[in-house]
Design a protein that fits this description.
By secondary structure, the protein is an alpha+beta fold. It contains 5 helices and 14 strands. Strands 4-7-9-10-11-12 form a 6-stranded mixed β-sheet, sandwiched between helices. It has a 3-stranded antiparallel β-sheet with strand order 1-3-2, sandwiched between helices. It has a 3-stranded mixed β-sheet with strand order 6-5-8. Strand 11 and strand 12 form a beta hairpin. The longest helix is centred in the N-terminal third of the chain and has 17 residues. It starts with a strand and ends in a 15-residue tail after the last helix.
């Protein structure tokens, strides 16, 4: 998640030098820096649960799961992101230590302050990753996940799952995620509630 900084045109080298001097993390899209907003305990729990669920489902495969601190680079225009969670099944990415470039799945936990950016400009950029097959948007308000799957013709198909008893199919990875696992152990005062699937 992120919010735009003061608009100032930079190239990637200028951004990397500038970001190294900043106390917080920044994303870089189309020559513009976006500050990474601080997360809540609900955001952190859903992110961690998603990471654990994907890691468990992908154990023993050639795919790796990353979260929050691992940077993702869109080589086409030198954009840099910190997705909440992403999966890479790429041999080239396994050899890269700090920056990955070939995601198969990206998951973002939506926040009120950044939802428009995540669904808009950021999602538009994500769709330019050639090997990306799945993008997930997870609500913090209630147990609800939107899954965008890339079709063979390059279009994207939306499927949704809601409620603690629901499961979300991930066709590109060949398994499903139980929403009860993604939304477990939330703070008692969280607004997340069970809704029918």
């Amino acid at each position: 998640m992120g919010l735009p900084a003061a608009k100032r045109a930079m190239n990637l080298d200028e951004f990397l030098a500038w970001e190294a001097q900043q106390p917080e993390r920044w994303e870089f899209v189309d020559g513009e820096a976006f500050a990474m907003a601080g997360g809540t305990d609900v955001h952190n729990t859903i992110t961690g649960n998603t990471y654990i669920a994907l890691r468990s489902a992908l154990a023993g495969t050639r795919c790796s799961v990353f979260m929050t601190d691992v940077r993702l680079r869109l080589a086409a225009d030198d954009s840099l992101f910190y997705p909440d969670v992403f999966v890479s099944c790429s041999d080239a990415d396994r050899a890269r230590r700090q920056v990955k470039e070939d995601p198969a799945l990206i998951a973002e936990v939506l926040s009120p302050s950044t939802e428009a950016y995540d669904r808009g400009r950021k999602f538009e950029a994500y769709r330019r990753f050639p090997g990306l097959r799945t993008v997930l948007f997870l609500s913090q308000e209630h147990a609800h996940v939107e899954c965008y799957s890339r079709l063979d013709d390059g279009g994207w198909l939306l499927s949704e799952a809601s409620g603690d008893r629901a499961a979300l199919k991930l066709p590109a990875l060949g398994f499903e995620l139980a929403l009860a696992e993604l939304y477990r152990d939330l703070p008692d005062d969280s607004a997340t509630t069970d809704t029918p699937s």
